[in-house]
């Protein structure tokens, strides 16, 4: 249950700064005018996440006012913020949102266009919000949760011995119904709730959190009311991807046998893939990922065998939900503990490596999300150890396209009605120098390493880039990234033409995301948008400089996380 309200140690939304009278000594006319009024003793200043972290400022529910993440400082959502008109609540439903819900596969394998999405986490994990998980299948190919019993989920800030956890804020609106459990999203497998508060503005509401055997999360309240649920959560970084390792069969969790008809069908698919229940787990997972990532979306539904699993799996047709469903059935037959995870926009799988559950994206994503996501700092997961075929439609790219669309739109209002931008990133790397003009707010490209004063000259500035090695083990060759700015001047709210190339070991890196940021000593790295390379490794586009970018001197950067073949890289 939620802890009793405690007084705020400080308020991030009501800071004042006592100004010394010496500050008022401006020009003589200003002194004359101010002498007619009472002196200004206090002046509101905007929240500063750096200060929040340094001073350990907390909000209602003991929620820290900011957290320091690998991508930069992130400010907390306001627990007392009124409900917004565009916020869709998580609501109870007898079948779809209750413990023990099910999933039935379908034959519509066409790629979807725009998909709805609610992004409750910051940093953003879009489109990988973990909303519904399934870990078993019956004779009719209906997926469900093997252990649907919902046990209380502890809320404890106690740190774990493993320091490699990632921290996130969660902010969502929930329609509580007394005595009924409402499904809510979690950030990833193995996630913990460090702090949580549910309420209506300044009034607390008592609640209890639960999770079932597949780590689906639920909330149950003492009253029937709409609340804002704000949490600080954490999860092991390795749960978001990374190397699967080489576990033995004995190290894996036990997988109950499938119904006889499902076993017989899965044996046919496993034979086509070239694995058996006696194959090494690492070999099985690697071959399954390769096979199911090679699925193709199709306007023609798979038919011919009267068995939806065999039709999907043997014809390799389907988008994300079909791939994840068929992967789950095949993996369970092969003795690999697996879950299918889904939300309103995407589906993927989690595989247990003997130590923890790890997320694996199989692709098949739609074209874009309705949620622009542009004001939310994206989370950077571990490198993907598995190869991607050319033309893949990955989940990360689904969110990247939404962010690019959001960069072309006006800045979204923040919790206090003030336009907000993503916090600065601490990732190193820089490229061509530029400066934002103090009077016009434009950005002029320049050359050399200095960031001040702007530069003259026509055309864009080409930059040579230095590959960056990803932290931790990474066998992928580092990417080399180039970037050219089009024109000599770009202003806030106007498009900035950018083009470049990404390659690794002399070969192009096709279909990788390239993030463009502006860097300054004062602001850190300010994300501008994301572009994607084509099959030749070239990227080009026009990104709009957000109106919320403060005036100052900046340098432009381009960086990529790569893919299964190409490693990380950035401009120098």
Short synopsis of the structure:
With 572 residues, this protein is an alpha+beta fold.
Report on the structure:
The protein has 572 residues and is an alpha+beta fold. Among the domains are: 68-105 and 146-237, no CATH class; 424-570, no CATH class. Helices cover 13% and strands 27% of the residues. The protein has helices spanning 28-34, 49-55, 260-273, 281-293, 308-315, 320-333, 395-407; strands at 16-18, 42-44, 66-69, 72-75, 114-115, 121-122, 132-134, 136-137, 143-144, 151-152, 165-176, 182-184, 192-200, 203-204, 207-211, 217-221, 225-236, 338-342, 347-352, 357-360, 368-369, 433-436, 442-445, 462-463, 480-485, 490-491, 495-504, 507-508, 513-520, 524-532, 538-544, 553-560, 569-570. The longest helix is centred in the middle third of the chain and has 14 residues, at 260-273.
Write the layout of secondary structure elements.
Elements lengths: L15 E3 L9 H7 L7 E3 L4 H7 L10 E4 L2 E4 L38 E2 L5 E2 L9 E3 L1 E2 L5 E2 L6 E2 L12 E12 L5 E3 L7 E9 L2 E2 L2 E5 L5 E5 L3 E12 L23 H14 L7 H13 L14 H8 L4 H14 L4 E5 L4 E6 L4 E4 L7 E2 L25 H13 L25 E4 L5 E4 L16 E2 L16 E6 L4 E2 L3 E10 L2 E2 L4 E8 L3 E9 L5 E7 L8 E8 L8 E2 L2
Parallel strand pairs: 5-21
Antiparallel strand pairs: 1-2, 3-4, 6-11, 7-18, 8-9, 10-15, 11-17, 12-16, 13-14, 13-17, 15-16, 18-19, 19-20, 22-23, 22-32, 23-26, 24-25, 25-27, 27-28, 27-31, 29-30, 29-32, 32-33
